[in-house]
């Protein structure tokens, strides 16, 4: 028997389950997503599940179940089942699906904290941090910056300067697998029943860190496979594990480019730490791009805002506008198709 409260099951989820027509069936949490199969942890054990046709029909792919989701399933036997329903999602980490301009991809659902992992050897990049932080704001997931490989050489002053504008609310951890105190500090930061997703580029040490936090090798890492001479191992799936003594950790494959889908201007201003200039621009709806009397542009000219930060602001602004415009365009197209269907229906009833 698994105690699902260790997997994040709550009273709120129980109340939501009671509203489902499948409320009498067992529930569980998706621990791994394969192409068409899902591994589900339930009180009764571990089940390998598939989706019913109903679960696919009329849904946007971003609404299909994903790692971290809570589902209701019909067991077929003691090891297999069919997913009948997904409980409403909260705190979902999305990204812009690579190769698209308007599709959202789910990385993980029901996430409390996101560890944005960068390694101090050569991966540290404040611009990349800003993207993740902006995205997390949309779903009220707490961003946490985790800088790994602190045993290797790096320039601490440079790192701290680059992090200065990233508001004081965001915790920053320096870790090294060779320094157990740094691992203990991070472990203490994860509460029982809390879900943490690890995200970042390939090779920064996400899987290694999860193994260290769990005190056992739950995931393969680059190091293990180099020792067997088989080349580098990179994680290829999103997988959820339990950390003894509390916390649910989700490992993810390395991400090359993290495209954002959050179009909230206030969030972007906050992430860039522009909020101190709020209300100081001449125009209320100032976008801080070329407007006269813009407090941000003036601060930039006075050297109070780092040009790198401002450039990053412009780039993200452009990206999210692009995303929103494509979504609106798609919606409009969807509407005009619906209108055409209505027209056809009306005409055909005329000739009945
Ligand atoms: N020196 C040092 N090396 C580390 C540390 N953490 C991880 N590494 C090494 O970094 C390499 C990559 O680690 P992984 O854990 O596989 O990286 P990952 O982020 O999971 O990579 P993907 O699965 O490809 O996304 C391995 O060789 C680790 O041993 C650290 O704190 N210090
Ligand atoms: Mg990995
Ligand atoms: Zn302005």
Please provide a written account of the structure.
The chain has 3 domains: 4-86, Nucleic acid-binding proteins (OB fold (Dihydrolipoamide Acetyltransferase, E2P), Beta Barrel), CATH 2.40.50; 93-251, P-loop containing nucleotide triphosphate hydrolases (Rossmann fold, 3-Layer(aba) Sandwich), CATH 3.40.50; 266-333, Ribonucleotide Reductase Protein R1, domain 1 (Orthogonal Bundle). The protein has 352 residues and is an alpha/beta fold. The protein starts with 10 loop residues before the first helix and ends with a helix. It has helices at 11-18, 53-56, 126-138, 156-163, 180-188, 206-214, 222-227, 265-271, 295-301, 307-350, and strands spanning 27-33, 37-42, 45-51, 70-75, 80-86, 93-96, 104-108, 113-119, 142-148, 172-174, 195-199, 239-242, 248-251. A hairpin with a 5-residue loop joins β12 (239-242) and β13 (248-251). A 6-stranded mixed β-sheet has the order 10-9-8-11-13-12. The chain has a 5-stranded mixed beta barrel with strand order 1-2-3-5-4. The model has no long low-confidence stretch (mean pLDDT 90). The chain contains 10 helices and 13 strands.
């Amino acid at each position: 028997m698994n105690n699902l409260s260790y997997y994040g099951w709550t009273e709120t989820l129980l109340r939501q389950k009671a509203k489902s027509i499948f409320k009498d069936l067992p529930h569980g949490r998706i621990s791994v997503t394969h192409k068409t199969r899902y591994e589900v942890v339930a009180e009764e054990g571990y089940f390998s599940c598939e989706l019913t046709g109903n679960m696919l029909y009329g849904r946007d792919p971003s609404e299909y179940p994903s790692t971290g989701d809570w589902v209701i399933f019909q067991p077929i036997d003691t090891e297999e089942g069919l997913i009948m329903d997904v409980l409403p999602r909260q705190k979902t980490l999305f990204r812009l699906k690579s190769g698209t301009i308007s599709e959202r991809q789910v990385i993980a659902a029901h996430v409390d904290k996101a560890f944005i992992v960068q390694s101090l050897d050569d991966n540290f990049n404040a611009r990349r941090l800003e993207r993740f932080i902006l995205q997390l704001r949309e779903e009220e997931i707490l961003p946490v910056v985790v800088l790994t490989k602190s045993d290797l050489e790096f320039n601490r002053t440079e790192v701290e300067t680059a992090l200065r504008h990233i508001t004081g609310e965001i915790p920053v951890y320096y870790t090294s697998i060779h320094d157990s105190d740094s691992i203990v500090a991070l472990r203490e930061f994860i509460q029982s029943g809390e879900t943490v997703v690890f995200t970042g580029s390939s090779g920064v040490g996400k899987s290694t860190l999860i193994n260290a936090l769990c005190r056992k090798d739950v995931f393969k890492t680059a190091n293990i496979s180099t020792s067997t001479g088989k080349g580098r191992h990179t994680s290829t799936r999103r997988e959820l594990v339990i950390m003894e003594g509390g916390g649910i950790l989700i490992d993810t494959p390395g991400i090359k480019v993290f495209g954002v889908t959050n179009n909230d201007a206030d969030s972007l201003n906050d992430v860039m730490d522009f909020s101190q200039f709020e209300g100081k621009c001449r125009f209320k709806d100032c976008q801080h791009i070329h407007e006269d009397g813009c407090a941000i542009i003036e601060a930039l000219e006075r050297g109070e805002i780092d040009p790198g930060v401002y450039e990053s602001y412009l780039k993200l602004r452009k990206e999210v506008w692009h995303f929103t415009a494509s979504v609106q365009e798609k919606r409009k197209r969807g509407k005009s198709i619906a209108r055409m269907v209505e027209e056809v229906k009306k005409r055909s009833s005329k000739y009945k």
